[in-house]
Design goal:
By secondary structure, the protein is an all-alpha fold. The protein is built from four helices and no strands.
């Protein structure tokens, strides 16, 4: 099951690189880290320490900054 998830994720990355600049797609990988941190808290009831919360917020801020400042796609 894990290999299927990874394969689907890589196919998605491959398609994304064809549709948007790499400078925008690559940093969006941080979204997976954010999602894993949130889901581990919700599903597994893991503790999200202050340090981890700061890391998630920094990753989220970085992704937003990159997305807002990405070069416009040319048609």
């Amino acid at each position: 099951m894990q290999y299927c998830d990874q394969a689907c994720g890589e196919v998605g990355n491959f398609l994304a690189y064809g549709m948007a600049p790499a400078s925008l797609v690559s940093p969006m990988g941080a979204i997976a880290v954010i999602t894993n941190a949130v889901l581990s808290r919700v599903v597994l009831k893991e503790e999200l320490s202050y340090r981890k919360l700061i890391g998630v917020l920094v990753a989220l801020a970085g992704s937003v900054i990159v997305a807002l400042n990405a070069p416009a796609q040319q048609h």
